[in-house]
Amino acid sequence: MRKTLNLVMALGVTGALVMMSGCALKSTPSDSTGATETTVNEPITLTLLAHDSFTPSEGIFDAFTAATGVKVRVVQGGDAGELVTKAVLTSGNPEGDVLWGVDNTFLSRALEANVFAPYQSKNFSLFDPTATAGIPGNEVTPVDTGDVCINYDIAFYAQRDLTPPLTLRALTSSSYKNQLVVPSPLSSSPGLAFFLATVVEFGEDGWQTYWEQLRANGVLVVDGWTEAYTVEFSGSTGKGDRPLVVSYASSPPAEVLYANPPITEAPTAVASLTCFRQVEYAGVLRGTEHEAQARLLVDYLTDVAFQEDLPLTQFVYPVNINATLPDAFTQYSLRPENPLTLEPNVIAENRAAWLDAWTQIVLR
Amino acid sequence: MTINRSPYRASAPALALLPILTIAIFVIWPLGNIFSRSLSWEVITRLARNSSIRQVLWFSTWQAIASTLITLLVAFPVTYVLARYKFVGKRMLLALVTIPFVLPTVVVGAAFLAILPQSLHRSVAAILIAHTYFNIAVVVRMVGRRWEQISPLIIDAASTLGASPFKIFRTVTLPTLATAVRSASAVIFLLCFTSYGIIRVLGGPSRATLEVEIYSRAVQLGDLSGAAVLSLFQLLILGMAMWWWIHTTRRPNNLARIQMYATVPQTFRQRITVYGISITTAIVIAIPLMMVFVRSISTDSGMSLEAWRLVFGNHVTGLGTRPPLGAFWTSLQFAIATAILAGVVGLAAAGAIAYGSRRIGQLEAIVMLPLATSAVTLGLGLLITFDSGITDLRSSWIMIPIAHSLVALPVVVRTMLPVIRSVPQSIRDASTTLGASPWRMWMTIDRSLIARGWVTSLAFAGAISLGEFGASSFLTRRSSATLPTEIARLLGRPGDLVQSQAYVLSSLLIVFIALSLLAVDGLRPDRVAT
Q1: pLDDT tens for residues B377-414?
Q2: Does the ipTM surpass 0.85?
């Protein structure tokens, strides 16, 4: 018995060493980007930093490598907030070459810390004009947009012969008492977007009263999108008891695409007048050793091929106006015509004070 | 207390070097960097005057104390049964109660929300229940190990002298267990004080521990100085708690023998107690785990294996075309690397503590430091510390096993300590008489006696790595997803099938963790000792 145990130990240690050296060997070419000088023979590998929701199709960068000879390694870590926090700390000595996924609610913090090396993409003229609004200096390039809106459970209102609330104002009406669940703006990105929608709609002096009314009307605030949408909301997986939730304009097509068993009608819909526009950006990180290649990658991220991959893998809308949307999107998703928007610098200046005030009004 | 000088005493400082260096390089140095960069008196005084910070501090403290006390109470019956009796399914039960301890909060949080009634959502009660659920294993393993060594002869003697069962418990059992109970309480208190995921998911947005507040300042508000000050507060408070704990805890007797006194239940009453308590505990622990499986197959219109088919067929999933099973291999590699790293450093630490002087024994508190440290702050510290030249480890794969090892280290040390201490001095004395050098003595006696325990601790470290989500998700960037991060990603997207796939991966994770824990208990020394 003792012999077998010693054998197990020996095997374990050897196996682990082999595995570790294997990993080390495998990762050597990509890890050495910072240290080695690039020769003609040695292909460059760019590191693309992204948040956890960045899930493009496998092999999407093969075409880029074929065209430029440059390889791409995607490195993910945390949500958009963590991504920006880390980028700010490492400004000038970045962990990668290109960053994907800073959005308009975090952009100003990154710009203040001088995280990016400005670059105007060759695709610039093809961008949806609302997406380029907040970045006059071209520090970053818009890559996708999405809308955060009130989603409602169609069956709930049909059964009761009620009209679902179509505006933010309607949410304070007693017909919708105890029906709304929202993720907290303190910890959730759609939660923050919804809060900003109320600031735009009711003004810097009006949103406080509005949230007092929402609270009186029984709004439920939960930590994140997952608890709100998949647990408390009645129109999706969790079959909770609240028919109104803050989610994305692209949530109804997702309900259809991932239904089990398959369905043809979306069980949920979007109140289009309640939408806040989120824009995500990518940018060349200041301090990269491969600025020229990094710029090529930013162009590739905004090319039609890459942009058309976005809707079904990440449920966001392309910024390149030449990209066509998949049928499921055009059929079940509603693209609000005049979403609420707010300049990144206004958000950055007021964010902390607004959230402090919001906490006092809603959570205390 | 028995005075005994270990023959290996001279090597203790050298052994201590490895764990001390590890903690210094990967915890203290990065923390020092982040503190020196962002601390200022102005911020400290601003936060000290902030009443909501005082509230957060108070909540962190009292909920941690309450969670610790409730866990001790709830875990007591099952600890007793597992320590004192042999019965069918004992090893399974031991593995089962340990599963929650290593499961990621992202899995259990969702299952708890599904089970708990609406009225308990976002309540303190939900937090306390979940903390208890996670930490029963700490009591079972740490207190149980001591309990099973109390000789029935002592109890028989007391009973012959006319002591009632209650009196025996109070005057014999409890004092013997005191040290183990204190150690277990210290670990649970640390884990609950720094609790993050459970507080956010089950406590709702109006409740925050210091750790939650630190995260929200650093990440959501970009107030890095505030976050640094609060993590310093946290470190000071928990540091004082650990100091107090170390200085009021007697060092256990190094001569404790590996003698287990578990017996087969004899009387009808004993059988009722043993099986009643085991079955009840098993059911309570298993319900949330079963819920995870049920959610992987349930749909609006009955059962469906569609999500399982998708995961195993590597078809289009909720994450584009990424094959979800790839995460399994990544997790497994990290688990093995973690087991080796934590196993080696932990063995050195446990050896130094067991063989060394009382001063070196304080290492026991030092290896707990990663548990008392704010994961976000440490993560940001690592980021600005290992950022240039050959020490640019920021996006290297090795950072993940290192982070996991820091979390697993206290557990490995605590698993190894009693094993190392229980090597009988008499055998060593005999070998000294025969003229063996300390090195030869260690290789022939200690090594073979602790090998089993060491493999156990490796399996434990591997299981911790498999389920680790909290700390490492801030500690490092990753170029390949682990099972827990993939689950979190799937849970964050709409669509029934996407959600079901998250539960499929969660079920798989539970199975893998259960298997590695069964390996842990299959190798426990009680089979040789009896």
Answers
A1: 888 888 888 887 777 777 677 888 888 899 899 889 98
A2: no
Q: Which residues contact A219 (CB under 8 A, 6 or more apart)?
A: A171, A180, A181, A182, A362
Q: In angstroms, rounded to a whole number, what is the distance separating the alpha carbons of residues B208 and B204?
A: 9
Average pLDDT over residues B264-285: 93
């028919």: which residue's tokens?
A243
List, in order, residues 6 or more apart from B247 with CB less than 8 Å away. none
Q: Which helix (H) or strand (E) holds B98?
A: helix B90-102
Return the CA Rg of chain A.
23
> Quick check: A96 and B455 CB within 8 A?
no
Average pLDDT, rounded, for chain B: 84
Cβ contact, residue pair B221, A257, below 8 Å = no
- In Å, how far are A23, A80, B46, B188, B222 from B50, measured between CA atoms? 48, 28, 6, 28, 18
User: Residue B76 to residues B12, B23, B98, B136, B137: CA-CA distances in angstroms?
Assistant: 35, 33, 15, 9, 11
SS (H, E, C) B245-275: HHHHCCCCCCCCCCCCCCECCCCHHHHHHHH
pTM recorded for the entire structure: 0.87
Residue contact A224–B337, C-beta within 8 A: no
Question: What distance in Å separates the CA atoms of residue B287 and residue B454, rounded to the nearest whole number?
Answer: 32
A267 in Cβ contact with A154 (< 8 Å): yes
Residue of B nearest to A315 (CA): B493
Q: Per-residue pLDDT for B271 more than 50?
A: yes
Tell me the chain A residues in contact with residue B496 when contact means C-beta distances shorter than 8 Å.
236-237, 255, 258-260
